[in-house]
Structures are given as structure tokens and as C-alpha cells.
Design goal:
2 copies of one chain form a homodimer. By secondary structure, the first copy, chain A, is an alpha/beta fold. Chain A is built from 7 helices and 7 strands; from the N terminus they run αβαβαβαβββαβαα. Chain A is globular and about 50 Å long. The structure holds S-adenosylmethionine (2 copies).
């Protein structure tokens, strides 16, 4: 471990946002999950929540490559379980969902504790979870195809969340609790 | 062809932006190219320019699925050829490139005729083309991984371009020349 590497690790941990999260509802293509987790890392997220598709999921760890190491992945047995846990932590739930009640993704506030819910490649966010979400958000589209790729959509939303949090000065001082900071510092420094 | 379908096709053609383009420099994963072309469609682009990787490229048409139909793909033998053609059309060239001269992607003007150049998954935009670009643009990152997935990066940039063009009223009246409008209307109405 070079001093530069250690400094970089500390710098990244100092900007991590424990209260901005992504939850995927049975997103099933490994490449989509990898791209999502890579964007989570790039935009300062420390945690991602996953409900695996019913068919199960094996290929993920391999294809996620590097980023898997830098974002803690929490697996939930059901969406209900994930939603209950995140609501208990005081999170607003923003479902990326192409519905009638959806608002422009730039109009919601990402500086509050919040979780962005991304839907399955075919079915979107399931109706029960969609009902429980505080807001539905949508990226305006003007083409023939009905939706964006799920990882593209997630990256666009996270980039806006990062913009808002930067404006609000939320990257300027460490926001991660000491205990988690120390645990991650230890993990990330392992060869 | 239902009247609703025809109305939708016309509406999409009416918002197409002939002078906003994407050029990929040997992007080689079919799934990345598909996600890029899907975002081009969603954000109102009518044209994409491609320099295939040296190994050649066969899988693309198949995996791009729907979107391939809605965005005209121009193939160039070399990046030099593509750059010359786009410069001759008066385009600013914005290379998405992680370099010292890169500026925040939100700082450049996407309302002028312009082309966004996306680099290869491993090597980025080649040095000669990077040198020829008017600007290098970068999406700010604060994680451990060195870059975003190329299709995520492209989607984020196009979403900003769309935002700027919407603000400027560029989606409010048809911008595509009659001849191309009529040609595409005919093509898109084929079963
Ligand atoms: C391929 S889409 C699924 C589309 C599905 N047929 C539907 O109508 O919900 C996969 C996921 O990507 C996200 N997504 C795609 N395009 C989006 C957009 N324009 N705005 C917000 N989220 C989007 C949503 O989370 C969606 O559930
Ligand atoms: C995986 S990256 C290639 C990284 C390559 N090692 C480099 O340093 O150029 C593939 C392409 O995605 C785009 N890209 C990835 N992250 C980006 C970012 N943060 N800002 C702008 N473009 C990015 C660039 O066009 C890049 O060439």
C-alpha cells in the first residue's frame, strides 16, 4: 500500500454518502448490475440494495469486477423487506417508473436521505413497491423506444443526485459514521 | 399502421435533432453500442457515427434490437474520415475523455451543431482524435473506479444535451430538412 493509494482511499471514504442508495427490483442482467454498481461508486454511494431475480443470480460477482469491492451490497429476500428497512431508516423512496404519477427526475430532492428504486428490464418496478414509493421519477424521452436501458437510467439519475449534493456542500465533510469508516478503511486496505 | 402510430412517428420526427450526433471510437461491446443507440433515440438524435473496432463487428444489428431502426448509423473507415466529415458540417467536437484539459460536461454548449465522441472501453478516444477535438468533457467522479461504463457516460451527457436544447426551445419546431423527414417517414411506416 503506497501512501498515495491510502490517501486516495481516505479521500473517497470522506465523500461517501451513506444516505443515498440504490435498490434494484429483480434487475437480472449481470452487465446492467455491474454498470449500476460502477456508477454507484463513481457518484459517491456506499451502499446498494438488491432483490435478486427469482431465477437466482450467480454471474454477478464476476462481471461486476472492480466496483463490487467499493460498494457494499445488501441482499434482501423480498422487495417488501427492503422497503421496510429503508423506510425505517427514514429514507424517501423514489421509484424510477414510467407511470402517470411520475415527475421529472430533476424535480425531486436528492439531498434528503433517499433510495432510488430501479425496475426489472421487462416488468419495471413491481406494482406493490411502486405504490409504496414516495415519488415516481422519469427521465424525459422523445424517441420511438419506450424506455432507456436500466443502467443508463440509473446513471443519469445518480449524476443529478451528485450535482444536487455537491451544490449543497454534502461532499465537503465526512458523512460516514466512524465505525463504518474504520471498517471500510480496514477492508479497502487489504491487498 | 394505426392513426395513433402514424401520429407518434410524426411527433418523434418533429423533435429529431439533425445537428446533435454521437461518434464512437472503436467501442467494441455490442451491449454498449446498443445502450448508446437506445439513448440516442430517447434523447432525440437522428444520427450516430461509428468507427468499428479493428476486429470487425457482427453482433451489433442483432443486439441493438429496436433502436437500430430509429437512428441512422453512419459507418466510417477511420476516425480521421469521420472527424473531417463532421467538421465540414460545422460541428463542434466534444470528446468524452478523462484528460487534463477536460472541463465539466455541463459547461459546454450543446445547442450548437455538435458531436460527442465516446472512446473505446479500454483505450478511450485515440490521441490523434482527442487532439482534434474542440473540447474534452468529463463527468465528475468521486469513487475508486477510474471511469464509468461508456454507455452510462454517453447517456448522462445526452441527457444534459437534451436539457439544454429543451430550454433553448429546439424541440418546439421541426428541425429536420424536408427531404430527410420524408425519407424517414416512408421508412418508419414500413411494416
Ligand atoms: C427497460 S426499463 C423497463 C420498462 C418496463 N417495460 C416499464 O414500462 O416499466 C427498466 C428500468 O429502467 C428504468 N428506466 C428506463 N427508462 C427510464 C426513464 N426514461 N425514466 C426513469 N426510469 C427509466 C426504470 O427503473 C425501469 O423499471
Ligand atoms: C471505460 S472508459 C475508458 C477509460 C480509459 N481507460 C481512459 O482512461 O480513457 C470508456 C469511455 O467512456 C467514456 N467515459 C467513461 N467515464 C467517463 C467520465 N467520467 N467522463 C466522461 N467520459 C467518460 C469515455 O468516452 C471513455 O473513453
Amino acid at each position: 500500500m503506497t501512501p498515495e493509494r491510502l490517501a486516495r482511499i481516505k479521500q473517497v471514504l470522506n465523500t461517501r454518502q451513506p444516505d443515498l442508495r440504490v435498490l434494484t427490483d429483480q434487475v437480472h442482467k449481470p452487465r446492467n448490475l455491474s454498470a449500476i454498481i460502477r456508477s454507484c461508486d463513481a457518484f459517491g454511494l456506499a451502499n446498494m440494495h438488491v432483490v435478486w431475480p427469482k431465477e437466482g443470480f450467480r454471474a454477478f460477482r464476476k462481471t461486476a469486477g472492480g466496483s463490487f469491492h467499493w460498494v457494499t451490497t445488501h441482499t434482501h429476500p423480498t422487495m417488501d423487506n427492503a422497503v421496510t428497512e429503508l423506510k425505517a431508516q427514514g429514507h424517501k423512496l423514489y421509484a424510477a417508473q414510467l407511470s402517470d404519477r411520475a415527475v421529472d427526475f430533476r424535480e425531486v430532492d436528492y439531498t434528503v436521505p433517499c433510495t432510488i428504486i430501479m425496475g426489472n428490464e421487462v416488468d419495471g418496478v413491481n406494482p406493490v413497491t411502486a405504490e409504496q414509493a414516495d415519488e415516481h421519477i422519469v427521465i424525459p424521452m422523445m424517441g420511438m423506444v419506450e424506455s432507456l436501458n436500466v443502467s443508463s437510467a440509473c446513471s443519469i439519475i445518480l449524476s443529478e443526485a451528485q450535482r444536487q449534493r455537491k451544490l449543497a456542500g454534502m461532499f465537503d465533510q465526512r458523512r460516514m459514521p466512524d465505525e463504518e469508516y474504520n471498517r471500510l478503511l480496514f477492508c479497502w486496505c487489504q491487498p
